[in-house]
Amino acid sequence: MSAASLTLFVLLSPFIAAALAPLATRLMGYRAAWLLALIPAGIFVYFARLSSGVSGGGTVTQGYDWIPSLGLRFSWLIDGLSLSFALLISGIGALIVLYAGGYLKGNAQQGRFFAYILLFMGSMLGVVVSDGLFTLFVFWELTSITSFLLIGFEHERAAARRAAFQALVVTGGGGLSLLAGLLLIWNVTGISDLSGLLAAGEVVRAAPLYPVMLILILGGAFTKSAQFPFHFWLPNAMEAPTPVSAYLHSATMVKAGVYLLMRLFPVMGGTVLWETVLPLFGAATLLFGAVLAVRHVDLKMMLAYTTMASLGLLVMLTGFGTERAIDAAVLYLVAHALFKGALFMVSGIIDHETGTRNLTKLGGLRSAMPLTFAIAMAAALSMGGFIPFLGFVAKEEIYAALAQGDAALLAACLVAVLGNALMFAVAFAVALKPFWGETLETPKHAHEAPVLLWLGPAVMSLAGLLAALFAPSFHAAISSPMASAIAGEARVIDLLPLPHWGLPLALSLLTVAIGIAFYVGLASLRAAVTRLLDAIGWGPDRGFDQTIAGLVRFATAVTRSLQPGRLDSYMTVTFVLVALVLLLPPVVYGELARAPFFPAHIPWHELAILLLAAVGLPAVIFAKDRLTAIVSLGIQGFSVAMIFLLYGAPDLAFTQFMVETLSVVILTLVMTRLRLSPSDKRPLVQVLPDAAIAIACGLGVMLFLMKVTEVPFDSTLSDFFEQFSKPLAHGANIVNVIIVDFRGTDTLGEIAVVMIAALSILSLIRVRAGGLRQAEDPAEETPAQGGRR
Amino acid sequence: MNSVILRTVAPALVSLMVLFSIFVLLRGHNEPGGGFIGGLIAVAALSIYGIAFGVGAVRRALYFHPIVIAGSGLLLATVSGLVSAFFGVPFMTGLWVTPVILGTEIPLATVMSFDVGVYLVVVGAIGAVALSLEEEEDET
Amino acid sequence: MMEPVLAILTGLFFAAAVYLMLSKFIIRVLLGVAILGNAVNLLIFTNGRLLREVPPVLAAGLDVPAGPVANPLPQALILTAIVISFSFFAFLLVLSWRAYEGLGTDNTDRMRVAEPEDAPLPPEGY
To answer: Which residue has the higher pLDDT, A679 or A182?
Structure first.
């Protein structure tokens, strides 16, 4: 198997696994998790083996043609950035599958859950390895859709439905903005893949439309990564089961926006606009998220808001885009994925074992759950930035990057200190408070978690420690190649988990000090923030509801005005348009028919038939009773048959005769039950416009037909049929040959339509009558009974 | 409808019409006619029979439910098209054989069986509608 | 050269059909539909040009027509169109009969089962 097809298989394997997951779960129950986790684990190993080739700054670009006529390819780009993301996605994915095996044990829908999670994983992998801009977009939207499915997993609850819908609208809407941005880039540069785009940054940045492109792309990135003011969907997404919160809404999907910014940094970054907008929104998100986090007592909500704050921090760092800021962003991104995922899973364990996630109702669990406590502490120490965890390395680098430079950087540094201190407080509130202090009574009697639950967070917490302890190898494999790919030039990160003597250390210590103060005063802080928010009133979350309700009302109003439920108004609109379409273009373009040549002599019998047809029409219109109507209708029908006969179409004439005969029979049968009002009851104000529309339509058709018939006739097709009817199809009746041979497939479709029409009619006839007749005529037990009630 | 004349004439008329419809069907490939026209003539025959003797008589005479006839016609038409698959030519390609029976060359073709399918669909589908409507009439 | 005459007749057919279909009464709409079927067939027929009394049937022994014959292509199209429009006319007829029976009116303005006049607003929640 070639490298390209192997990679393709690896990228498709989550989708295949997703299709098989429900079956595996039905056969094996929750233990299917062990089997299904092998898929992401295998992907992890596969990408880890690629890392030696990529860590030196190399890239792998392969793929297949997708829409060759548009120059679109299904191709992938594997470099330091996408590889690190792929490793995070597959590695954490394997742990999440195991965790979900324990967390949803006994849930009847567990198989569906596995399928969704694997679908998401495949989509997310697609986002980070896509080379083509449009494959990137397709996978980007797939993550929105799978996220929708996962948030709405417990769809019996209205809150989950609302959260899922909200996430889909916000991130899907952002995806459309992203698409517009990508199309614009494609239009300006003519390049449709990232690998080509990375070399064409100059062109993009110099384009007059650059601000528009950037804003559209940011619309995608900011919604996905929950930047203020698009953040509100992320806390609501905590309605999802905890494995989803840990995986999508902290470790991977919400980082897709950050990924996109990092990916496009060499292309679009470094401009004034970039360095203004990103830090501003990032800083606002960081502060806002951190402050909102302390307001909550629900463990997951607290973590969700700190995730939002961390995403703000990452956007801010990417926005500044200095070399050290990029290094810091890379380190913090990996550290955050590990510790936040672990903390989410710990909150899930606590919920699972005690029956509550309310911080004020939890305490003293350390004796019942020592292992969970240890895992939680390891993650919190990394989040709080203690030696020797990866979080410490990252935070030192953040301060080192921000503490030197101009006023904007210093302001950002202050924001970062404040935000980090708040997150510090939240980290220990989640990891320490439930386990420490006196034991509180919980809805369920707490036990240590089973292995499926603690394995994932344990591995992730441990990874946060080991990455720092073996920092040189970690940097060589992950952070240096990743930073190089973002910066677009070779970068070497060589930080050890040791303090930087100087300002960064002082800031770290300050952060810890403020953080401890916040932790101690958490209850009063919470009360203060709550008062503040109450004073502000409603935010974007309420606004979303108002917008949706407004949309529904607007759509209803539009529908009611366009579809009033009156057939005659629909008909009027339709025929007015028909008349306009027929009459306007010839008048505007001067294509009206010339004065027609009427034949000097028409044989009297032809004239009689034409007149008969013309007389039949008003007779139908003005018929006062049903017999007149039926007879007049028959007159015009038989006249048409005569016309066919006159002009060399005996087949048509016979068919029309038979159809008219049967029509009269059927009409007579049905009309006896229908009331034909003696007059049309149209008031004059309606007759006049109706007549005008009708005359306009008739005139339009007439002029059209005259125009068509006065130009020479292209007889290619007819000649073909005349020439080859006998030699090819052995038939002398050309019309019949066309029907059954040359255009036989068409006829097959048409007799199928006749059949369907007959079945529908029979069903309609029996809707009411069927019940009576069923018993007495067994011969009727046929497929035609389908329409019976 | 209770007319002695109609009841007397109907059997002869109806059998003539059915024969004529089959004649029109079979000559359709070389003379005016074909499955659609033949089918419609047969439906007219069935309607007349129904008016003269009641729908029950027609249903007994037909033996199969009209929709079954229509369905088998559709099946026959489809199969006629599919035969070409066995000869490696595209769907709906006409195939001809001319066996000699009793000294006469009889041309047979998948297009003819296709036309017979059309005939059966028209007879069955439109016949079913006409009979059901007549039946409603009888009941009221 | 009969095309302009047939064009006028076709225009009349269309005008009559449209006028009937603009009625509020379902029976008239139905009659309009029936006429519209014939109108469209005449339109296609005339488009293919007219030729008197020479059906597109080959005389015995000939492989191609000896002289000009009527255009077979529109005829083939119209032949199936006649049967199909008849099927649908029958369907509409039975449908309106059932509607008349069930709703007790033949005025389309009063047939409001699917789109009631005072329908409640759709839900605004989730």
So the answer is: A182
